[in-house]
Design brief:
With 652 residues, this protein is an alpha+beta fold. The protein has 4 domains: 149 residues, Cytochrome Bc1 Complex, Chain A, domain 1; 140 residues; 93 residues, PH-domain like (Roll), CATH 2.30.29; 145 residues, Immunoglobulin-like. Helix content is 25%, strand content 28%. The protein contains 13 helices and 34 strands. It has a 6-stranded mixed β-sheet, with helices on both faces. Strands 23, 24, 25, 29, 31 and 34 form a 6-stranded mixed β-sheet that branches. Helix 6 crosses helix 8. The chain is globular, with a radius of gyration of 31 Å.
């Protein structure tokens, strides 16, 4: 194997005749180089090349042949690889040169698929917001906002705007199909690692990733990651007493590589996750492991890394003990931890999220429910009901907005440079025209792309529509409330002395002498009634029930539970939302599985003063973990009511 310079290009010549003729072009342009507002253009251009180069080529009079072609788009490179006989590859290589030079037309085709295994927030807060972030999200589909034909010209090695290296295992295929480059890109490609990137924690729902680190894009960096993976496997065994595998995802960005370590066979929760992450940072790494990793990298030098380093202006070097020790130190200094709601960071680390000041500006309420937006001059805030009863607050930094994604269904997603996001569905808010105007003002000059199906707009609008129908029908409600009050008044003489009167007869809203109450955290027993800060009353009781044969968890060992809920409003335009309720169990605490198989599901609805809503929520607790159970209702932060489940009765 050797490097040669031919007509201004670096060629890497392999000695692998047993594999058949091979030819490739590696371009130093990948997703991280593509501006975010042009997301999808590179994938489309690659798809066009894939289709065009896979067509039959003439190899002689009356003869044609089809090469095997692969065009791949990576985080920091684009690679065109070909296999076939010498005549076929020579013709296909010339066609590639003609297409990139604009001498041959090419048709629009489907974009190539990419798969980036890393957290978008991790990528963005380390390397900035580019098309690499959107590709990693696997949510935004390529829209090709840029011109793919212009991009193909930009990628032409002869134009001298993008670094290129070529590789073959056949001397006859070294040719001058490409004109000599008109300019040169000297030196090493700069690092894109952000100066404000810092180690710490990133909270997600529990998943497979454990940690991520940044190492050099080199053999030493690969050795450092190998050592960390081996150490992590050992720590997992020490904590869980199980031999669980580890997978490593490598995302290269020029001279730097982001490595994410993930568990393969199980998801580690809470305390176990915390213990393993603490061991990773506190336990020293034995010298023999570093030596073994260096030896492995010296004996195994992947072709892809050799070519990628060359195309980014980096020398190809063998791994060494000193450089690998430095790479391990760099990994430790840049380490981030994937935490879940029930785990905690190792000592000395903090979340990477930078706190923003509270939003101060016009407030826009949903037409139904308690969700609202605050459009400040420096911060935009969206407060809404999240999953498992949590009140979620999304914020973006107006001064550092990086992208606006426009959804054709009349919605936008705002993303700042820390990958914080806020979504806005305009027509579900009151004063939507004023809201549109303010969003336009705050996002002036911010890059924009268009992408659909990012926000469940139809689902949100159905909820709003349902609430509107309830509001239109509320004229019938006072009759029912009056009848109920009269009946209870008639029955009052039958109550025993000291028995409290029903709350529906005297809604606290009507008591003019009651002081305002702040939202707080309250704990009571299942079956009891709790009073919220707005004087609304909520009662929760829990019983065991038998699921239907088609129930999601019917075949599993465990306990099916139903929470019977009654919510009575004390003020107009109150709203009961099933998403604000959750059940937890075990030690450490974890969420029960949601079950839809209940007779009378609690529905989201708007209530007037004195109205009550009743319904059920179903849960499933796996195995014999039905301990420390409690149902929580979260409302205006930090308000939370918790019903402790001590005795479970048998339900239907």
């Amino acid at each position: 194997m050797q490097w040669r310079e031919v007509d201004g290009y670096d060629w890497y010549v392999l000695e692998t005749p047993e594999t058949g003729p091979y030819l490739s072009l590696v371009l130093g342009y990948g997703l991280v180089h593509e501006p975010v507002e042009e997301f999808g253009t590179l994938q489309l251009a690659a798809g066009m090349l894939q289709t065009e180069l896979s067509r039959p080529v003439e190899t002689g009079f009356g003869r044609a042949s089809v090469p095997e072609v692969s065009v791949t788009v990576g985080s920091d490179t684009t690679t065109i690889g070909m296999r076939g006989d010498v005549a076929t590859l020579s013709a296909a290589w010339q066609r590639l040169a003609d297409v990139l030079a604009g001498r041959q037309t090419v048709d629009i085709s489907d974009p190539v698929d990419v798969r980036i295994s890393a957290a978008p927030r991790d990528i963005t807060t380390r390397f900035g917001l580019t098309s690499l972030t959107l590709a990693a999200s696997q949510v935004v589909q390529p829209q090709a906002a840029g011109d793919p034909f212009m991009l193909l010209g930009h990628l032409n090695p002869a134009a001298g705007q993008v670094r290129a290296v070529m590789c073959t295992n056949t001397e006859q295929l070294i040719s001058n199909a490409f004109a000599a480059p008109t300019g040169g890109l000297a030196g090493v490609e700069r690092s894109r690692y952000r100066a404000d990137a810092r180690p710490g924690g990133m909270e997600f729902r529990a998943g497979y990733p454990l940690i991520s680190v940044m190492v050099p894009s080199s053999a030493d960096g690969a050795a450092a990651v190998r050592v960390l993976a081996q150490q992590t496997v050992q720590h997992i065994h020490d904590v869980t007493r199980r031999d669980l595998g580890i997978e490593v995802s490598l995302v290269s960005v020029g001279p730097d590589t982001l490595a994410t370590l993930m568990v393969v066979d199980a998801i580690l929760h809470g305390q176990q996750r915390s213990q393993i992450q603490q061991l990773i940072v506190s336990k020293p790494i034995p010298d023999h492991r570093i030596a073994d990793a260096v030896e492995f990298e010296v004996d195994n030098r992947p072709l892809s890394r050799i070519l990628a380093r060359r195309v980014h202006g980096l020398d190809d070097e063998f791994a060494s003990l000193d450089a690998t020790h430095q790479a391990v130190a760099q990994a430790r200094a840049t380490m981030r931890f994937y935490t879940d709601p029930f785990s905690h960071l190792p000592a000395g680390y903090e979340p990477i999220d930078q706190a923003l000041p509270a939003a101060d500006g016009p407030k826009f309420k949903r037409k139904a429910g308690r969700d609202h937006l605050v459009i400040g001059t420096g911060v935009i805030e969206h407060r809404y009901a999240g999953g498992h009863g949590a009140v979620t607050v999304d914020v973006v930094d107006v001064h550092n907005l990086a992208l606006v994604i426009e959804d054709p269904s009349d919605a936008v997603v705002l993303i700042d440079d820390q990958y914080r996001t806020v979504d806005v569905i305009f027509d579900v808010y009151r004063k939507q025209n004023q809201l549109r105007e303010l969003i336009t003002q705050r996002t002036q000059g911010v890059p924009r792309i268009t992408a659909g199906d990012l926000i469940p707009t139809a689902q949100v609008r159905r909820q709003v529509g349902k609430s509107r129908m309830l509001k239109w029908a509320v004229g019938l409600a006072p009759v029912a409330i009056i009848m109920f009050a009269v009946l209870m008044s008639w029955a009052e003489g039958l109550r025993e002395v000291g028995e409290p009167a029903p709350e529906h007869m005297d809604p606290p809203q009507a008591r003019q002498d009651e002081p305002e109450r702040a939202a707080e955290q309250v704990k009571t027993a299942a079956g009891e009634t709790a009073t919220l800060a707005n004087w609304s009353r909520v009662t929760v009781d829990v019983a065991e029930f038998e699921p239907g044969e088609d129930s999601e968890f019917a075949a599993f060992t465990g306990v099916h539970l139903v929470a019977d809920i009654e919510y009575c409003a004390a003020e107009d335009e109150d709203f009961v939302d099933p998403e604000l309720f959750s059940m937890t169990h075990g030690e450490p605490s974890q969420f029960a599985h949601d079950v839809e198989d209940v007779e009378d599901p609690l529905q989201p609805r708007e209530l007037e003063a004195g109205q009550c809503a009743t319904g059920q929520l179903g849960y499933f607790v796996m195995g014999d973990e039905a301990t420390n159970m409690q149902v929580s209702y979260s409302y205006d932060y930090p308000g939370r009511v918790t019903w402790v489940v001590e005795d479970i009765s048998s339900g239907s």
